[in-house]
Amino acid sequence: MIDRRLKFVNTLEKFLTTKIPEWQSPLPFEEPPAFAEDFDVALPCFALAKLRKESPQKCAEWVSELVSAEKAQLGVKRAEVLKGFLNIQMETEQLSKALGSRFDDPLGESRTALKGEKALIEFSSPNIAKPFGIGHLRSTNIGAAISRIYKALGSEVIRINHLGDWGTQFGKIITAYKRFGSAEFVKGDPVNNLYKLYVTYHEKEAEDPALLDEAREWFAKLEAGDSEAVELWKWFKDVSYHEFKRLYDRLGVDFDYVTGESFYSELMPKTIERLEKQGLLVESEGARIVDLEAEGMPPCIVVKSDGSTIYATRDLSTAEYRAKTFQFTRMVYVVGGEQILHFRQFLKVLEKMGYAWAKNCTHVSFGLIKFPEGKMSSRKGNLVLLESVLDQAESEALTIVREKNADKPQDRKLSETEEAEVAKRVGMGAVIFFDLHAKRTKDIMFDWKTILNFEGDSGPYLQYSVVRLNSLLERATTEGLKFSKKDIPELETLEERALARKLLRFPAVVEAAAREYEPSIISHELLDLAAVFNRFYMNVPVLKGEEKLRAGRMQLIAFTKSVLQLGLGLLGIQSPERM
Ligand code: ARG
Q: How far apart are CA 120 and CA 262, in angstroms?
């Protein structure tokens, strides 16, 4: 992944496409492979070979001659052909300058890459009166990261939490509350106890099917605005959100709108009417459906045979409302992979309704977080309590932070309050990074060892890297070295060049993460960056040498820290200054 807007890449491209008119932009520039790391750009010549009906090797040699003839003008130091590839090493000054131009903002021109966009991002969306599950945690972290990424690239972003607060289950919860619950019971532990009532309801319904009629009646009352039903429902919603909010605060997540499904329910009759008028609704076994056979999908049920509407109906109305209200350029739903069919269905229905914006809607799905059998999992209903996961992360982080702190010299020890503060950040960082480092569509196995491993591919490892960079910078300053953004690194060594290249591609990486709705692209880049940095640090004596050289190196380190921090920040991870 090369940032194609780098000046020297641009210059090369312009030169080559002018000299070789049949080779059209974008040329396939690549990062050179590890064994050729003294080069900065690699250019495979296979496509060109096809065009010219020559061997790739011959083509590469020809291109190499062209480039070599204009070396000085192109800022090229060396060009070499290897197996159909042309590897190019730039004059160091080219890299240094490019790097220096990013010191004010590691994202450079990418800051405005998505200017003019209005992205509506729906994520988290837990169901009220049910514990916040680990799946909602994934939606929350992925959605919040995507929101930050889009914002960083200049898009307007609207974050929506689409609470599950409507549907026949609320008739059941009200019935259960009236029959088996009490205000005291709910107040004791609102979400868990409401959920217990819901579970009890189902046990009782199995013995006494008449309960279902009662539940239906309560939901009908709720829909009709009956004051008792509405009041209970509102209360359940308030106490639930109050608890969810606690989690959002710990995770550092915010929304612009918290608008539950109920909000859109009164729009449903109009949606049904439109479907009707367009001739899209057909009767099937008493239900009214949109047939999707031609699309190879089961029908999208809009009205059930008992006349009630469902999840899909609400989603249709919701999307219509949002298109009208926000005029988004894209809408993203961050929802688990088990709902893929649902999204394909109702998005297809919107398309059939003739909405051009339907093609700008995307379901960003994700895999499950699995738990090793017997641990953590398996309350009744198999919901894992997220809060206990966060608590445990924090307390395990605290143990590690304390251990590390104990080894420190007296004058560098953290106070107890600092330890707790660091543990908070590390605990959350650990969970968030774990969640965001796997490709989102993959299932992941929950494992404390990986999550909190300070040496492994983990959040704490990256946080710790930032802290180490920080203390290096502090040390240099204490030793009287002054450096600033004006100190352009000289990039003398291979390791420095590799680090510079890594830092230069960061904007392109963030853009790729946006394009693919894939925060893990950033997570991986940060791990790579830390590794490239470590190698630089192991091999280059950063505090030795003449002043100008050292200042440039310190500035390189300071910039590395900025990029790491920016990247972690996009994922939602705060790095402590010390730990
Ligand atoms: N509340 C739903 C659930 O937990 C997720 C909502 C997803 N968003 C949507 N527009 N359907 O399963």
A: 19
User: Domain 386-571 falls in which CATH fold?
Assistant: Isoleucyl-tRNA Synthetase; Domain 1 (1.10.730)
- Going by alpha carbons, the residue nearest to atom 6 of ligand 1 is 125
What residue's CA is closest to ligand 1, atom 4?
126
The length of the chain, given as a count of residues: 579
Same fold for the pair 123-370 and 386-571: no
Q: pLDDT tens digits for 61-99?
A: 999 999 999 999 999 999 999 999 999 999 999 999 999
Residues 191-202 have a mean pLDDT of: 93
296 and 284 Cβ atoms separated by less than 8 Å? no
Q: What is the pLDDT of residue 381?
A: 37
CA 483 – CA 474 distance, rounded (Å): 11
Boundaries of every domain in the chain? 7-90, 123-370, 386-571
- For the chain, the 3-state helix, strand and coil shares in percent, each to the nearest 5, are 60, 10, 30
Residue 24, φ and ψ in degrees, nearest 5: -100, 150
Q: Could you tell me if the CB of 127 is within 6 A of ligand 1?
A: yes
pLDDT at position 378, please? 38
Give the residue-averaged pLDDT of 344-373.
94
CA distance 473 to 20: 48
The pair of three-digit structure tokens given for residue 26, joined into one six-digit string = 């974008």
Give the sheet arrangement for strand 330-334, strand by strand.
257-258, 156-161, 118-122, 330-334, 361-364
Q: Candidates 124, 262, 315, 335: which one to mutate for ligand 1, based on the most atoms within 8 Å of Cβ?
A: 335
Q: Is 125 in the pocket of ligand 1 (CB under 6 A)?
A: yes
Residue range 396-449, pLDDT digits in tens: 999 999 999 999 999 889 999 999 999 999 999 999 999 999 999 999 998 888
- Whether 365 and 123 have beta carbons less than 8 Å apart is answered as no
Token duo for residue 498: 């590799």
Strands 281-284, 41-44: parallel, antiparallel or unpaired by DSSP? unpaired
Task: Tell me the CATH number for domain 7-90.
Answer: 3.30.1360.70
Pair 271, 317: CB distance under 8 Å: yes
Measured CA to CA, the distance from residue 230 to residue 223 in angstroms comes to: 8
Report yes or no on whether pTM surpasses 0.70.
Answer: yes
Domain 123-370 listed as CATH 3.40.710.10? no
Q: In what order do the strands lie in the sheet with 281-284?
A: 281-284, 287-290, 300-303
